[in-house]
From TrEMBL:
Transmembrane segments: none annotated. SUPFAM superfamilies: beta-lactamase/transpeptidase-like. Residues 16-367 form the Beta-lactamase-related domain. Pfam families: Beta-lactamase. PANTHER family: BETA-LACTAMASE-RELATED, BETA-LACTAMASE-RELATED DOMAIN-CONTAINING PROTEIN. It comes from Sphaerisporangium siamense. This is CubicO group peptidase (Beta-lactamase class C family).
């Protein structure tokens, strides 16, 4: 397939892997960007942004990237910690006193970042309109009793992760996490990534499509479906309006656990900014801060009895069988549509792959690209 963009000398393997994705398993539209040493060395895009009209994917095309949002929120949390404004190991209630209710007084922000707080789902069923209003979700979190003794087990915290860490950010800064991200570094660096899509960007939005043969979803009452739909407030995997992930009303809201919209370059820029800075700017996070973030908190069998081969640090997926990375200093997050982004301060990398064809969670497209990047930087 013909694709657009360019790669620096020494990164041709990434272009080959990107082109291969359009043949097997078959992309609709996609993009990949790599920063190395604070400089863009790969920027590729191709295919179709909207299957209904045939509109092509362009350099500035953006797409929902689901839980890649958690990486943005986590960088913000670690930035506040580095500044001395947030103690990740202090009780959340230090910043948010009402959170301590119902047996949550000992839960720390780090427990939430490691998916260990006992709050993967909420008991209260919220309407679609209540979720972007923010306060109803905060009240539901305050009322929630942990499903297990905090710190003793782990389960992916899906949407609760973003709202809980996001409210800690809001209590400290006065800004919701999407607004804080833009103020702290997103605007200054011109990053095409948002949690809460501005209306003026909607013309650049790719439309998600489900691949044929996508595995069926579990029942609505199952833990996993309650986690990913917030008890049915959002449609999943159904993508169409209303309340699906092609719905502008949803994408325009701040849903910080899974609601980011980004280009590959904007999302890769988040990680490049964190580990190296971009085009001469200082890195956002120090090596010591990243070392703390990379310490494994959770792996193996979850509270519900699953083991997907994941390893979690403080807010980030670490190098693991599920998502292999170039080395032990890699950290990132992936999205339910196959999107993936990571940083690595050993190799000085910021990487993002985005796509609008949803094949199935953990599909191989991003893994093939990461393997190509690894081969390029390790020789």
């Amino acid at each position: 397939m013909e694709h657009n963009g360019w790669v620096d000398e020494g990164f041709g393997a990434v272009a080959e892997a990107f082109a291969a994705g359009f043949a097997d398993p078959g992309e609709l539209g996609a993009a990949v960007t790599v920063y190395a040493g604070g400089r863009k060395v790969v920027e590729l895009w191709g295919g179709v942004a909207d299957a209904r009209t045939g509109r092509p994917w362009e350099q500035d095309t953006i797409v929902p990237v689901f839980s890649c949002a958690k990486g943005i929120v986590s960088v913000c949390a670690h930035l506040l910690a580095q500044q001395g404004r947030l103690d990740l190991d202090a009780p959340v209630a230090r910043y948010w006193p009402e959170f301590a209710a119902a047996g949550k007084e000992a839960i720390t922000t780090r427990m939430v970042l490691g998916h260990r707080a006992g709050l993967p789902v909420l008991d209260r069923t919220l309407s679609f309109e209540e979720v972007p209003a923010w306060t109803p979700v905060v009240r539901a979190i305050e009322e929630q009793r942990p499903l297990w003794e905090p710190g003793t087990a782990y389960e992916y915290h899906a949407h609760v992760f973003g709202f809980l860490v996001g409210e800690v950010i809001r209590r400290i800064t006065g800004l919701t996490p999407g607004a804080y991200f833009r103020q702290a570094f997103g605007d200054a660096l011109g990053l095409r990534a948002w949690i809460g899509l501005p209306a003026e960007e909607s013309a650049h939005l790719a439309r998600l499509s489900e691949a044929e043969g996508r595995p069926p979803m579990p029942p609505a009452e199952s833990l996993i479906m309650r986690m990913v739909t917030m008890n049915g407030a959002f449609a999943f995997p159904g993508l169409e309006e209303p309340h699906g992930w092609n719905d502008p009303a949803l994408l325009g809201a701040e849903v910080p656990g899974a609601g980011a919209v980004a280009s590959a370059t904007g999302l890769a820029g988040v990680y490049a900014a964190a580990v190296t800075g971009i085009d001469g700017t200082a890195p956002l996070l120090t090596r010591d801060t990243l070392t703390g973030a990379l310490r494994e908190l959770s792996s193996g069998t979850t509270w519900s009895g699953m083991d997907a081969g994941q390893r979690w640090g403080s807010g980030f997926l670490l190098d693991c069988a599920f998502r292999p990375l170039p080395g032990a200093r890699g950290f990132g997050n992936d999205g339910a549509g196959g999107q993936y982004a990571f940083g690595d301060d050993e190799f000085g990398l910021g990487f993002a792959y985005v796509t609008n064809r949803m094949i199935g969670y953990g599909d191989p497209r991003a893994t093939r690209l990461v393997a190509a990047v690894r081969a390029c930087v390790t020789g």
